[in-house]
Amino acid sequence: MADRKLLFAGTALALIGLVAGGLYLSQSPASDGFAQCRSGAVAGGLEAFGTDFTLTRQDGRRVTADEVFARPSLLYFGYTFCPDVCPLDNARNAEAQALLAERGEDVQMVFITVDPKRDTPETLAEFTAMMSADMVGLTGSEAEIAAVNKGWRNYYKANDAEGDDYYLVDHMTNTYLVLPGSVTAEYYPRNTSPDAMADSVACYLDAAG
């Protein structure tokens, strides 16, 4: 049963990755202030991504979107029980963050759970500490998590119908660059290398002044 669940989850993530990749449609217009940094355009425009929220940080404090995104951030939606994809993606983001720090760029990592049932603040504190000393972990009620995922168009589905404590959660594997003011500037698929991500983020930060 466990092997079949892992196979299902892997297949679902592969399909989700293809759908997510399809969001990149064409080059951005020259009037875009970040045009020189963009690799493509997202259907509907990235300005449509994001939402206000109040969630619970890994230290137990309730924080708003404006408080979280007061600094440039690499935002990822995942869960701490994820067997492989989430740790690998966040390790890549941490490497990009370190490369940016070497350039003098101050960028934080933000992790919003898609599994609020198991991802308590304490659990998130352990996970974020393993990934980066400068990483924010956020959880909340199921309704709060559903709303914030909807704001970033992030699909997720917990396979917990059978009551298994070790259930998997299907989810998209996007990383977003969110600038101060909660402006979603870019979208990185999981095959983006740390160097390419660092170069792209640096371009946006330079363009933002």
Automatic annotation (TrEMBL):
Membrane-traversing stretches: none
Top-level taxon of origin: Bacteria
UniProt xrefs under Gene3D superfamilies: Glutaredoxin (3.40.30.10)
Family: Belongs to the SCO1/2 family.
Protein name: SCO family protein
Species classification: Bacteria, Pseudomonadati, Pseudomonadota, Alphaproteobacteria, Rhodobacterales
